[in-house]
Amino acid sequence: MAAERFIGALSGTSLDGIDLVLTEISAQGEIRQLDAFNASFPEHLRNSLKRLCTPGSDEIIHLGQADRRFAEAVAQGVQTLLERNALDASAIRAIGHHGQTIRHHPELDPGFSLQIGCSHTLAAKTGIDVIGQFRQKDIALGGEGAPLAPVFHHWVFADTCETRIVANIGGIANISVLPPKTSDTPILGYDTGPGNTLLDHWVQHHHQQHYDVGGRWAASGTVHEGLLATLLSDPYFARSAPKSTGREYFTSNWLHQRLERFESIAPADVQATLLELTAQSLTTAIQSHLSDSQMTVYICGGGAHNSELITRCKALLPDVSLQTTDTLGVNVDWVEGTLFAWLAWAYVQGLTLDLTAVTGASRPARLGAYFPKD
């Protein structure tokens, strides 16, 4: 069977736009990234999503409209991607569509994870079959529904001999522990805590920038040890895996409630402390999986561009080789978009994916649901 083209579409917890990745995947699962770009949200949609991601603002009409508008924004991004590559819709086998997570509460009974971005609308607007709702089967089987990335990371990044760790620093940070391809050891992975989400909130609040470029503002401040200890005392960090979280847990209110316990702290010092929170929670998780043998950690996601954050991670992991996924042939910015293209491919192939040791699901499953163009 000839290789087929798949598009991965993802909007992460940073709300920085829609990542769209055009791939070509062979019947054996070999992946070629053909093109990728980030489609910025219209400002009204970004504001709607921020509102919906904040607990207490759940208006059903607003949710329903954002569900459609988000899908329309993805469809526009897909059309741009096709035009950039002189392709029409018939050249694409399927779109792997994640949507925008509005709530993620696997800890409730029953637990749930809610993504908006109507897959039927996306299929109708693009004329391309859509595979979506990747988290729901895992949750139905008792799993957290997240993270999904570890099984993909193992497919793409695992070595034949050594164990590797992939650390994705998006709005939320997570790790994947990848045993050698020849090993029967299960794949592990979980969310370690906030990645960029609190850093982005704080710099947006004080400087009206979407993010702290290179971590420069954080580097200008001094870590407030009392605040850091308070942040790290949150029960999430002590929970054992499987575990997952989202920006609806590590909210601006979560931060401000803890800031109220202290006298005025300089904004730059708060930013420095938030960066240290991400660095320490991430590296503590990584350290718990290190063995005596040399192990390489590969960084991906937007946090890979935060040079101050990477410097701190290297300082906290002095005996670890810290690299980016670029060295393995996958651009740090497009790993997650490629994940959803691959998940669509896996669904089309009828593959069952084993996330039992990652999410706590009761058995391997075929993840996703099919939304036809016709």
From TrEMBL:
- Please, which domain of life does this record's source organism belong to? Bacteria
Enzyme superclass (EC): transferase
Annotated pathway: Amino-sugar metabolism; 1,6-anhydro-N-acetylmuramate degradation; Cell wall biogenesis; peptidoglycan recycling
InterPro entries found in the cross-reference section: Anhydro_N_Ac-Mur_kinase, ATPase_NBD
Q: What does this protein do?
A: Catalyzes the specific phosphorylation of 1,6-anhydro-N-acetylmuramic acid (anhMurNAc) with the simultaneous cleavage of the 1,6-anhydro ring, generating MurNAc-6-P. Is required for the utilization of anhMurNAc either imported from the medium or derived from its own cell wall murein, and thus plays a role in cell wall recycling.
Record family assignment: Belongs to the anhydro-N-acetylmuramic acid kinase family.
HAMAP family in the cross-refs: AnhMurNAc_kinase
What's the protein called, per UniProt? Anhydro-N-acetylmuramic acid kinase
The organism's lineage?
Bacteria, Pseudomonadati, Pseudomonadota, Gammaproteobacteria, Alteromonadales
